[in-house]
Amino acid sequence: MDIRLTEVEPSDARQVVEEHHRLQSYTGDFFLGSRQLEARHLAIEVDGQRVGLAAVGGDGLSLCTVAPPAVRLDRQILETVLSETGATQAYAASWDRHHLNLFGNFATGIDNQTYQFELLRPADLRPPLPGVALSIAGDSDLDYLHSTGFLDDSDDKAAKGELRVARLDGRRVGIGVAHPHPLHDARVDIGMYTDPPARRTGIGRSILALTAQQVLASGGRPTAGCWWANWQSRRTLESAGLTCIGTIFRLELDPDRFRQS
């Protein structure tokens, strides 16, 4: 059996990435979708036939998907991918059993990476605090956006209309984010920043709720994510009415696990 990896262009890989996500029970994840699209893409060939695709980023493997007839060769294929790329980490979502099992074969450790949230029902949204309002960030807000240090690319996001400035009774107190999903037009990733003096007052959940309302009004479906150790953000997302629907894990891999057995 001859297993080879060949470089492919991102445009050629996108169809495979999209198909992989369509087959999952949950399709709103931004973390893996973005990582897989931005990765180095390697076509997987077995005995001269292309059977799948691997996506390797700077810090790990996020995809190693193959056509159903080649699933029985998963272990040998992944062994080749790890050997040739030098990857020692992988990322897999709790709703993607195949990749958890596949990467788990080579894992020496597993840890949480991010939590994924979704607004399951519009009725779950908590009402915002009285006096809190959102407006699309404009040129006059750029100095404020820069001063928060919240985003490195605030100018770019503001130019695309992805940022909102939150005001409480006319005073700027935070930022709302609505970022389109890289794979699914209807999904929109929402997030927020609250000025330190305004934290723990309900401003954060109000920003999220108002941003989610705007997404819903435009026909979108709000989702969100947060780093696993940022428990305060998780509480804020849940208090706004979003539900945690899964976890993305980071696995430490040993490429030589089967060679040593």
Element layout with pairings:
Elements: E1 3-8, H1 10-22, H2 31-38, E2 40-46, E3 49-57, E4 60-66, H3 74-85, E5 89-93, H4 97-104, E6 107-118, E7 132-136, H5 142-148, H6 154-159, E8 163-168, E9 171-180, E10 187-194, H7 203-217, E11 221-227, H8 231-240, E12 243-253
Parallel strand pairs: 10-11
Antiparallel strand pairs: 1-2, 2-3, 3-4, 5-12, 6-11, 6-12, 7-8, 8-9, 9-10
Short description:
By secondary structure, the chain is of the alpha+beta class. It is 30% helix and 36% strand.
Explain what this protein looks like in three dimensions:
- The chain has 261 residues and is α+β, with helices and mostly antiparallel strands.
- The protein has eight helices and twelve strands.
- It has helices spanning 10-22, 31-38, 74-85, 97-104, 142-148, 154-159, 203-217, 231-240, and strands spanning 3-8, 40-46, 49-57, 60-66, 89-93, 107-118, 132-136, 163-168, 171-180, 187-194, 221-227, 243-253.
- Strands 5-12-6-11-10-9-8-7 form an eight-stranded mixed β-sheet. It has a four-stranded antiparallel β-sheet with strand order 1-2-3-4, sandwiched between helices.
- α1 (10-22) packs antiparallel against α2 (31-38) and α7 (203-217) crosses α8.
- The longest helix is centred in the last third of the chain and has 15 residues, at 203-217.
- The protein is elongated, with a radius of gyration of 21 Å.
- The two termini are 20 Å apart.
- The model has no long low-confidence stretch (mean pLDDT 94).
